Amino acid sequence: MASTDGRHRAAVLGSPIAHSLSPVLHRAAYAALGLDGWTYDRFEIDEAALPGFVAEMDGSWAGLSLTMPLKRAVIPLLDEISATASSVEAVNTVVLTDDGRRLGDNTDIPGMIAALRERGVEKAESAAILGAGATASSALAALSRICTGPVTAYVRSRERGDEMRGWGERLGADVRIADWAEAAQALRAPLVVATTPAGATDGLAAAVPEHPGTLFDVLYEPWPTGLAAAWTARKGAVVGGLDLLVHQAVLQVEQMTGRAPAPLAAMRQAGERALAAR
Fold it and tell me: Is position 71 annotated as part of the catalytic site?
């Protein structure tokens, strides 16, 4: 846990970063918690600039949020990473301790689990993942903890399929690979996690079954996606990217400030207002 003594700075790093809602969420948390002296900024930082930035962080820093392309690049710069972060070789949270150590964690995975739990999904007999990028590995890690049966990943290339199989073996998950051309079949799973870029699943909207299960679409802008809108129209449960963003940010705030629980409702309301204003 971070101490509030002397350390009051935090920021999100990545490239591109201008779109990030993290400052909105963290600042809302600081306001609700009465942490008047705390600041949270954003910095456009790529892999080449990351070591220099981290090296210059002084005792005023409490922590960092990391987005692409830094989640793996930061690992060699840290003193220790959690088992959760190690399981997917991705760090999205850095906490600086009182003695100057840099600790890495991954709050995306427990954030996904918390977002699903909030919608009443604690277990699933099987699941499907649409896509096989960086977010898909975190989704698979989350599913490995709540899914009692197989997880089928729908991918566009053999290489991506091999990567997902590798993650499955590492995480102890029963992963099966299917071609993206068959992605409409994924929508019949009781839990579907869409990890693809904007527009990639729009063509699947017409294939939503009459009685769908739960869709977790990790996008938050634009929202709703075509798939999420079609899912809602069929009365299926939908968990969105803002849910994920807020839940993982809650865990970051708690780790960086040492204050728990973080104000989930205030953070979500701030995120919703910011998205509505765009």
Answer: yes
